[in-house]
Amino acid sequence: xxxxxxxxxxxxxxxxxxxxxxxxxxxxxxxxxxxxxxxxxxxxxxxxxxxxxxxxxxxxxxxxxxxxxxxxxxxxxxxxxxxxxxxxxxxxxxxxxxxxxxxxxxxxxxxxxxxxxxxxxxxxxxxxxxxxxxxxxxxxxxxxxxxxxxxxxxxxxxxxxxxxxxxxxxxxxxxxxxxxxxxxxxxxxxxxxxxxxxxxxxxxxxxxxxxxxxxxxxxxxxxxxxxxxxxxxxxxxxxxxxxxxxxxxxxxxxxxxxxxxxxxxxxxxxxxxxxxxxxxxxxxxxxxxxxxxxxxxxxxxxxxxxxxxxxxxxxxxxxxxxxxxxxxxxxx
Length: 332
What we know:
single chain; alpha+beta; L-amino peptidase D-ALA esterase/amidase; five-stranded mixed sheet; 5 helices; 27% strand
């Protein structure tokens, strides 16, 4: 059984891709936090797939394959809904102090930091939208970045919950999970932040974590919605964020395809996925260090790494306040 909290070794996490590091800032008392993915000094090729319809983002335009900017320096995943977007200023400051960013001539450099948020106010004290990660907090996450990736109720997953078909108080704890898959010289690592309206399934298709009925038993969210049910108090309160990193020499169009492949893998474990009430986004980045055997190799490796990261995100998440987690004693 997996324990929580814990850290994946570099060989079994997003940081299996050499040059990539991950840092968290966590505020358990106020149930929020942020997670940063730092690239190597020269930056990373990047693209994304927007799969949900309730997103909160910054600098996403730079990930379009037709955009002038061809590399990014970091990705920030943060709580606080749209309020949390300002935390990216701290990542930019940390990078600028180290001379890392897009060269802009005599003006110097501009660090490029695409950012996406989750809504984590359901677990905030009093359920109020009055706390979120700040620029200083994201700076601290950068300072803490390393090849060891903490998982569970940490960073951007601190206030995350899953399975909200019957409302936020009937949910279970989500969190951060990471894993990697490789073959030969090609490595694909995944990091996910689970805050989904849908349930989380295991490899057999059984519900692992999700909406809890009045009797405490897990409820089929898809069947609930098919009968015309809706999330109680529904709104843009749910999001799954993911970063897949590879050393494969993919161009930005290829990375966009990799992001969609990772999104497809998420949809096999999160049911339903990418709904009207979810702000789901997948980022794909490459250090472009090794040639893949085929155009599909990295996508296939992502399909192996992402489900394991999803499962770890809930298995390693400890409960918070009245929301139970699978890592709690006595919870299956």
